[in-house]
Amino acid sequence: MKLTLLSFVLCSIFSTASWAANDKNDLASFHKEMGGCKSCHTQPGKVSDSETYENQQCKSCHGEYSALANPKLKLDPHASHLGDINCTSCHKGHEKPKLYCNECHSFKGLEMPFNSAQSKEPWDKGWDNDAISKAIAAGPKETTDVIVVGAGSAGFNAAIAAKKAGAQVVLLEKGPFSGGNSMLAAGGYNAVGTAQQKEHKVDDKIEWFVEDTMKGGRYANDPKLVQILAEQSADGIKWLESLGANMDDLKRSGGARVDRTHRPTGGLSVGPHIIDVLRKASVKEGVDTRLNSKVVKLVIDEDQKIVGVVVHGKHSGHYMIAAKSVVLATGGYGFNKEMVAFYRPTFKGMTSSNNITSTGDGIELAKAIGASMTDIDWVQAHPTVGKDSRILISETVRGVGAIMVNKDGNRFVSELTTRDKASDAILKQPEQYAWLVFDNELYKKAKMVQGYDHLDMLEKANTVSELAKITGMKESSLEKTVSNYNRYFKQGKDEEFAREQMPLPLEKAPFYAVKVAPGIHHTMGGVAIDTKAEVLDIQSKPLVGLFAAGEVTGGVHGYNRLGGNAVADTVIFGKIAGTNAAKHALETK
Ligand code: MEZ
């Protein structure tokens, strides 16, 4: 498959000739010639970790992303799902730019301005115990009520909830942009008893949500946490809506008995939407969000109570912030190859659908002060990660009607089974990959599928046999598979694999296929928490002042998470953690 995109440019005022002509050939020297260091910095050498002033300068000159997005380009990073992030995330002033898109995609031929500039050592490589000790010995440089570590959905929800509860909040994110793994969430948010379910006449019950989640997690989940997830799920939707989200579309995810996965109208991916909403809401609430700020130590006193954190800032170096409460919302370890190999050796070397920030930092930070871990070795492989990229092909595609076949064109499992079973089934097929096959009716219905097409991930043909030829499947097998499936659709019964729901037949040309294989998707285990989102020590007592929410925790999902439960988890337990962290900080002043 060939990507048609040949190049993109930062903004229209840069011609290739002008930025390539510079002798040092980096963004800074180009601007120096245009007006000196002050065209970007207030005072060179005094740059905040978030590079806020510098980014204001970029935008004041070049405009917002909406102005920079070039409609003539097939793919334009300025209009991508990263949303409104710092320009300097990719366009570095004094070093080679970094094309973050290619951490997940494999776009060929994308050329960035100043690409021949020199690379520098990453600012955050490795632990520096000496610098950490010095920062603690020097004492806190500042004090706040609540520190939230990690600016994905759990972190933003915790920070906003803590702020609404009256606390001063600092939100620290190690990455150059916020969003974490949540930003990549495609599917949706599971909730029961919502206005949306009522409108679609979906009959659902809290008990069913609990049962489905426990069954999906092989009954290894903490039932108290699952009960909270189900009971507070509808309130979580209302909370997101109150912050500006649209969660009006409903679909079914694997392992759920009814349609309870909520997502934006038109079937858009949920993650970029809610992260955009949460970014804006946190600004409105006055959360002090700092990017390029990695927490390297949780600081406790002699009674094991939290007294703050040590931060390693990109520009400010190591410093301590004092706080009575800290919320860990650092996400899972699905992008940390060493941790995956250690905790789940059978998944060693497997691709991952996760954001590059999912490196398990919170687990290490919490372990270092005696936190207990729950199910730390349970790692979920998502069955349908793009075979030639790290892009997740959402289970929505199966939910709205796609079938899954092996390299020969034969179905081998119910497409709606839980992820662990679907992944295991693919790994038992020849060459350990599969194809999702669907028709034009589905293509028109699911906006995200049009997005995969835009990314050139789909094979397309006018007939089923032509599709088989293009993809190397056996023509007679694929034709038989499709005609059998259409018969099952008509009779309302899948005779082979008892698929519970068949929303569409596969009849309308063109027909499509996308190649998929299992990839690390979610780490179910993590720090142990109680129902107040307090982190527990190895005697199962709360570590006073430490809270956690989202994928850094264990217990909610048991051995296998259901699709749509992660986003719900981040919102519901993010809110609980933030509210209780604020309460603790304000009451112990
Ligand atoms: O919750 C998820 O991980 C999810 C629904 C993913 C997906 O396949 O879209």
UniProtKB/TrEMBL annotation:
Coiled coil: none annotated. GO terms for cellular component: periplasmic space. Keywords: Electron transport, FAD, Flavoprotein, Heme, Iron, Metal-binding, Oxidoreductase, Periplasm, Signal, Transport. Its cofactor is heme c; FAD. Residues 145-567 form the FAD-dependent oxidoreductase 2 FAD-binding domain. It is an enzyme of class 1 (oxidoreductase). It catalyses: 2 Fe(III)-[cytochrome c] + succinate = fumarate + 2 Fe(II)-[cytochrome c] + 2 H(+). GO terms for molecular function: FMN binding; metal ion binding; oxidoreductase activity, acting on the CH-CH group of donors. It is found in: Periplasm. Residues 30-106 form the Tetrahaem cytochrome domain. Its EC number is 1.3.2.4. Residues 1-20 form the signal peptide. Binds 1 FAD per subunit. PANTHER family: FAD-DEPENDENT OXIDOREDUCTASE 2 FAD BINDING DOMAIN-CONTAINING PROTEIN, FUMARATE REDUCTASE. In the C-terminal section; belongs to the FAD-dependent oxidoreductase 2 family. FRD/SDH subfamily. Belongs to the FAD-dependent oxidoreductase 2 family. FRD/SDH subfamily. This is Fumarate reductase. It comes from Shewanella xiamenensis.
